[in-house]
Amino acid sequence: MTQMEAFPFKKRLSEIMVTPATICEPDASAQHIAQTMVAKKTTAVLVGNTNNRINGIITENDIVHKVVAPANIDPAAITAQQIMTPHPYHLPPQTYMFEAMAYMLGHRIKHLPVVNQGEAVGMVEINDLMRYRSQKAMLLLGTIREAESLEGLAEIRGEIIKVARSLLSETRSTPEAMEIISYIHHGIIKRVFEICLEEQIAEVGNTPDIRYCFLIMGSGGRREMLLNPDQDNGFIFEDYPDERQPEIDRFFVP
């Protein structure tokens, strides 16, 4: 087994992406795009300009459903701009593989442009990631994003010990296992916050007009969480007048 196969999730997208990214002009015909996919042996192309600034993405699924399947469509007449999915999800090249897989599963996408400072530098496909190990951990992250209740998240949390056993059976280092487990805990905490926020808005009303952020601190902030970590969380608010304190407390301190 190669080092890449044994410890793939410490790899970054810059190390595994297909580069350069295949990019077509917005006015390129669907026929030209399909021919490019065949020539490049790829299942997706990006739509952008000569500076590699992307406007959209076209996958083989788009070709089938928007060009081939409809009647009376001339592939030579329809353009990339007409069939592309605009503003595609993307991640920077320094992103870890396990973060990218969780992101793709969460957004239900199979192709991920790798973008560095606005410039498309590569492409990653979900199949490239799924063939590596630790799929159990990544699938669990996808399930977290779909959870609709705190009870559902509690059930998911009970699966973490199985993931830990799987990671250790793969002879992973303890720091790597902790980082992946921490990422799962982060996903659960984030989803708990989202659900609680939705419930609070439904009960009390809209969030006060103030900027704030939710923090994960301690071992969670260092990505050193184990199976049953304590919770060191908090809020940071922008500065606001003292007279707004009751309004802020009414929403954030129920």
What this model shows, in words?
Helix content is 48%, strand content 15%. By secondary structure, it is an alpha+beta fold. The chain folds into 2 domains: 13-93 and 112-124, CBS-domain (Roll); 135-252, no CATH class. It has a 4-stranded mixed β-sheet with strand order 1-2-3-4. Strands 5-6 form a two-stranded antiparallel ribbon. It starts with a helix and ends with a helix.
Architecture blueprint of SSEs:
Elements (H helix, E strand, L loop, with lengths): L2 H4 L6 H4 L6 E2 L5 H11 L3 E5 L5 E6 H9 L11 H4 L1 E2 L10 H11 L3 E6 L2 E7 H5 L4 H12 L3 H8 L2 H10 L4 H31 L7 E5 L1 H4 L11 E5 L7 H8 L2
Query: Major beta sheet, specifics?
Result: 4 strands, mixed
- Overall structural domain count: 2
Mean pLDDT across every amino acid position? 86
Secondary structure tally: strands: 8
What multimeric state do the chains show? single chain
Low-confidence runs of at least 5 consecutive residues: 1-7
SS field, number of helical segments:
13
For the termini, the CA-CA separation is: 53 Å
The helix-and-strand class reads alpha+beta
* Rg, alpha carbons: 22 Å
Instruction: Estimate the helix proportion, in percent.
Output: 40-55%
- N-to-C order of helices and strands: HHEHEEHHEHEEHHHHHEHEH
Instruction: Identify the strand order in the major beta sheet.
Output: 1-2-3-4
Measured by DSSP, the beta-strand proportion falls in: 5-15%
Shape: globular
